[in-house]
Amino acid sequence: MEVVVLSHTEVRELLPVSDCIEVMERALVDLTKGDVWHPLRTVMRPPQEPSLMGLMAAHRSAPKPDYGIKVVCIFPGNRARGLESHFGTVTLFDGDTGAPLAIVEAGAVTAIRTAAVSAVATRALARTDSTRLAILGAGIQSRAHLEALAAVRQFNSARIWGRTEAHARSVAEDADVPFPVEVVSSAREAVADADVGATTTSSPEPIVDREWFAPGAHINAVGSSVATAREIDAATVATAALFADRRESFYAEAGDYLLAADEIGPREVRAELGEVLTGAAEGRRDAEELTLFKSLGLAVEDLAAVEHLYRRATETGSGQRVEL
What is the tens place of the pLDDT at every residue in 64-73? Predict the structure, then answer.
């Protein structure tokens, strides 16, 4: 059987963020409609082993059946070796026969689709007159979020903060956006007066404070995807309108919420993003409301991305064809 194999570079060429935003919006609507399904992610942590393997599987039933799975290995010690900490693949399987159709590099998929989902959330929840952007973090996701969020709002300026100033400066200088990006010395300075923010760090402890946010701001909380780490403080979680990519994932995996709930008690998610997009639930209620979208990353997003990549590779002849 022939399988299409796509490299990191080919994924980036075939999945520009502008296209991915629309792909992710459809995927989240499909999730709400019940056309796609997935269990919670599985994380394998061998005893006494600092590395881990994560598995995220999903199934599409309509309009054409497909299976997809992302497998990612995370090795924290890789940075000391000069390597990326995350390596993995996303595989697409034919839903009628089970035959593998495509294997693509997972790092580019994850970076692009995560930022694209934040863009979908920002388009749905942020005020339409938003002009000031804040990015907290200076890694792969900060770069991706600058580009993705610029595609859905007409920002006049952005501020970026990272723990390593040189990394933040590199992101600012390389940003392909139509507005100036300023590097600032603190998270508080970045967030001050921002209309839209994105937290994209690996911090296990809160990096923001509720009093820093301007009335009517929208926050995309992206960096933490485990129950034991958070970027957002409890007071923000207590007062913001909460939105999720998926409730089950939110209540099982979102450290931003779970650790805050230990202090403030339980809170309800107002809506999943797909519910807002379909009109099944309300989004922002007024211009003064603080909205918070907790991004955890879903297997259905990876499935939608690899489906799109397979279609584009078939149309363009991109990638390598391998006989298995």
Answer: 999 999 999 9
